[in-house]
């Protein structure tokens, strides 16, 4: 399926809401949970969720939610999580990824880590919006934050492909951007890499 066709799958409003819910959750979700989250019946949720799986936007796994095994434990539930697929659509066609890759390669070879972090921090300050909450700021930048026992972790890294290719350079840039974005909000960003999550975590500033 072409990227434009996959994006077309999200044109259906209920389907898009289901995708946004599943994509924003830190753990795989059941059909019941997804249906309840968007306010529809389970059978309708199952239909749309499976369409999203067919399009490659979601992935599935089976697990017994009771934690039990053996006879009487019940059937495993079908759970959904965001797929690792990245989509790009530009009309007419553009290829900014190659440009970004080349720029990152040159910056890494020239050891411009500090300069890049400084520029990213300044850009983060410029992106701040007055009277906008931290969660809204992060959502607007595509980070998909969620609370993890008082720490905001980020379900999505907007720079995922480049971060995999140039981890120190791009993760440092990401940290600088978030530091600038959060400046003066009472929150601070720090490196705290976890599997499947953005390498940065956010917590309230320690005022002690």
From TrEMBL:
Origin superkingdom: Bacteria
UniProt-listed InterPro entries: ArsR-like_HTH, WH-like_DNA-bd_sf, WH_DNA-bd_sf
Pfam families: HTH_20 (PF12840)
This protein's name: Putative ArsR family transcriptional regulator
Organism: Microlunatus parietis
